[in-house]
Amino acid sequence: MLSSGVIFCEILYIFASAVAGGLGLALAIGLGIALGLGGRDYVAENIDDWAGKVSTEMDSSDTRPETRGSGSNASGTDPDIGD
User: How many whole angstroms separate alpha carbon 43 and alpha carbon 37?
Assistant: First the structure.
């Protein structure tokens, strides 16, 4: 039969694990809320600058795909297929 000291240690271990898990969860939630609420103001102040930089970079780079009619085969027909 188990002694009362071993049972007490097991109960204490389970309780301490639950408390540590709860504190960790509370810390994670609190940190997430704090960063979310604090970051909201930062983003609101800077979003226009970020959007302007992105649109400027997109306009200056040539990211448009090549059209079908360009290149050496300007007629758009397949050279392997006879007319």
Answer: 10
Q: How many CB atoms lie within 10 A of CB 19?
A: 10
Per-residue pLDDT tens digits for 24-79:
999 999 999 999 998 988 888 888 888 888 777 777 775 555 555 555 555 556 66
In this structure, what token pair is assigned to residue 57?
Answer: 């970079």
Q: Residue 30 — φ and ψ, nearest 5°?
A: -60, -40
Secondary element (H or E) of residue 75: none
57 phi/psi in degrees, rounded to 5: -65, -35
Question: pTM surpassing 0.85?
Answer: no
Dist CA 34 CA 83 (whole Å): 69
| Spatial separation of the C-alpha atoms in residues 59 and 44, rounded to whole Å | 24
- Continuous segment of H or E residues that includes residue 72: none
